[in-house]
Amino acid sequence: MEFMKNGKRIDDRLPNELRPIKFEVGPLERADGSCYVEHGGNKIIAAVYGPRAVHPRHLQEANRAIIRYRYNMASFSVEERRRPGPDRRSIEISKVSREAIDPVIIKEFYPRSTIDIFVEILQADAGTRSAGINAASVALADAGVPMRGLISSCAVGKVDDTVVLDLVKEEDNYGQADMPVAMDVRTGEVTLLQMDGHLTLDEFEQALELGKIGCASIAEMQREALIQKYRGEEDE
Amino acid sequence: MKKQEKLDKTIVVPGDLLSEDATKAAEGTYVENEKVYSLIYGLADEREKVRVIPLSGKYLPAIGDVVIGMVSDISFSNWKVDINSPYEALMHISEDPRRIESSEMAKIMGVGDLAIFKVVDVDPSMKIELAPREGQLRVLRSGRIVEVSYTKVPRVIGRAGSMISLLKSKLDVNIFVGKNGRIWINGKAEDEDLAVEVIKRIEQEAHTSGLTDRITKLLEEEKHGVHEKR
To answer: Is residue B59 assigned to a domain?
Structure first.
């Protein structure tokens, strides 16, 4: 499969260009915080509940809140119907996503409680864990959870020996490498870094740099979306 | 940018730089490398200190807070009280000046009853102890309860109680605002209806300026409407 033509990718983007991204803050009335995101072909909704009492009780910690993260793909989110319910892949993504967001949350403010994060993938088009983390981060802020910063995430990869930002499904499935990155852009702390495929050391460093630039753009969009929520109401 | 100016305060998100002067840090902020950053999503208020007023979040009790609680369970010598917080609060029978037998607890205050409490103790693991607000326990038997986010309570009360005074003067109702965002309204049904409407409006527009004027206008109009209908 040919991915690069005249320096442009299969969806006409430049190698360092993100897909169109749209954040909507607070679409869910019942959740304490929520966010809907469209990231290219991905459609994802994140809901945050808490801090609230922990059930089952034995999971609670006496001196801090616990964080639970559930990444789930809807059965209709991909071309071929997916069997509903958690599988090996989604359990792993839930774990790494939780660990990507956990370091910025001030858990000590809420002993004996839990903060539950639910990320539902309604439509998938590569980079769902990254887009899910972005949405979860905004939803946490919307819920009023104290955090040192917002976590932003995007994927980088390699197709036709070119390092590219924010892969689409074809590039992910048939490309040479896929590497999601999540970070706190202000501090530069990387909280998630996975890699599937092959990159040389030089390419890896180039990809990580590109990923950081992508995260910085996304951080700005997350911030703008949160500010817009209250500016919008001001208009009425 | 023009819209932003209409707000009296700037909206900030976690991690936003607020000040280069670490001594200015107040609630809703944290200090890293001698700089002050926002800890929460809210409105930055910079005066002598810089603090961030939350726009959302859960109520955390502090000693001395006066709250409206609902009894959720009765154990041997304690009432378990829901105070609209992640943590359940307890009131021991000895907090009531009367001598109450364990078997009579449900008669004094049963499950589902609401009352006004004072927070007397909060320990590091968030075990919360309550007492009746003043002296004897008074269960709220009439009126109704509205719940707003605890973050909007200062706006519902207004500067030095101005908003509450306004409501009480225009409507023939008794209003009590708990720190936890529960508000008790007691009066005639129409007045209660209007009070609920107004409080919901205050909650929605809590972050905007000129709110008191708008609420005054709303009250005038609505009050007129109510009279005409009769």
So the answer is: no
- Judged against a pLDDT cut of 60, whether residue A89 lies above it is answered with yes
- Do B110 and B80 lie in one domain? The reply is yes
Domain harbouring B179, CATH code: 3.30.1370.10
| A12: alpha, beta or left? (left if phi > 0; alpha if psi -120 to 50) | left
Q: Which of A51, A222, A230 sits opposite B86 (nearest CB)?
A: A51
Is A9 a domain residue? Answer: no
How do residues A93-149 score in pLDDT, each as one tens digit? Answer: 999 999 999 999 999 999 999 999 999 999 999 999 999 999 999 999 999 999 999
Q: Does A146 touch chain B (CB under 8 A)?
A: yes
What domain range is B125 assigned to?
66-140
Give pLDDT, residue B18: 96
Does residue A14 fall inside a structural domain? Answer: no
Give the distance, in angstroms, between the CA of residue A166 and the centroid of all CA atoms in the same chain.
12
**Chain A closest-CA separation from residue B118 CA (Å):** 21
Final residue before a domain boundary, out of B113, B140, B167: B140
Burial of B32 (0-12, 13-18, 19+ CB in 10 A): middle
Tell me the CATH number at A43. 3.30.230.70
How far does CA A136 lie from the centroid of its chain? 7
Residue B124, preceding bond cis, omega within 30 degrees? no
Question: What residues in A contact B7, CB-CB < 8 Å?
Answer: 230-231, 234
| Chain A residues 74-103 within an 8 A CB cutoff of chain B | none
Which residues of B are less than 8 Å from A67 in CB distance?
A: none
SS3 A49: strand
Using CB atoms, which residue from B4, B11, B86 is nearest to A52? B86
B68-110 pLDDT tens trace? 999 999 999 999 999 999 999 999 999 988 888 889 999 999 9
Residue B61 belongs to a domain:
no
Domain count of the fold of chain B: 3
- B122 and B167, same structural domain? no
Output the pTM of the full model: 0.92
Q: Quick check: A191 and A69 in contact, CB under 8 A?
A: no
Q: What is the mean pLDDT of chain A?
A: 96
